[in-house]
Specification:
Serine Threonine Protein Phosphatase 5, Tetratricopeptide repeat; 10 helices; 72% helix; globular
């Protein structure tokens, strides 16, 4: 919450307290990276990446790819995405690898590379994804102009997870909103926010 209210010093204090009490979580690595980015410290960003990677937290590569996308460095974005996917697969974490690849497709769609985004999603979804990756895939397809395929995935999600609150109250409306935004490009729409709710 402190980060949302730009209370970066307080957020740092909370993370320091957690570290002092030996409480750790992959989320803490992401928050440390986010704070380094928001405070504009390139040195601290590099430190957080190195520390996270040495602890096996490869998700920091996805965060770093977000940063490079923010700066418009597409080649670096693709390299970091590829590294995250490859490392996740090497570690046997197929679902994370699928997620990283689809999030990469979302970035491609936001850069206007719709065909590349569509191919990336198709490749990722061929690996039997879980519900979150399916939902992300539907969102990426919607943003890349593949409304019918996105809608098909929405129907699949509704059929497979009829009682899942996150799927039905967050993911599906988000995908449908993206489809509608593509149909009405004159209406304002939000850009990508890749740190989505987890299950």
């Amino acid at each position: 919450m402190h980060i949302l209210f730009n209370q970066f010093d307080k957020a740092q204090q909370v993370l320091a307290q957690a570290e002092a009490r030996k409480v750790d979580s992959p989320l803490f690595w992401e928050l440390r990276y986010e704070l380094a980015f928001l405070t504009g410290s390139a040195t601290d960003i590099e430190h957080q990446v190195n520390a996270a990677m040495s602890d096996g937290q490869i998700g920091v590569l996805a965060s770093q790819a977000d940063t490079e996308a923010y700066h418009g460095h597409l080649a670096k974005v693709r390299d970091l995405t590829r590294r995250a996917v490859d490392l996740a697969r090497r570690n046997g974490d197929t679902e994370s690898a699928i997620g990283y690849e689809i999030v990469g497709a979302l970035r491609e769609a936001d850069f206007g590379n719709f065909k590349r985004a569509q191919k990336q999603v198709a490749h990722a979804l061929a690996s039997q994804p879980g519900e979150r990756s399916k939902a992300l895939g539907a969102l990426a397809l919607a943003r890349a102009g593949e409304a019918s395929k996105a809608q098909t995935l929405v129907h699949d999600l509704q059929r497979e997870f009829p009682s899942n609150t996150l799927v039905n109250s967050y993911w599906i409306p988000t995908v449908l909103g993206a489809i509608q935004s593509r149909k009405n490009p004159s209406k304002p729409s939000s850009r990508s926010i890749w740190r989505c709710p987890t299950n």
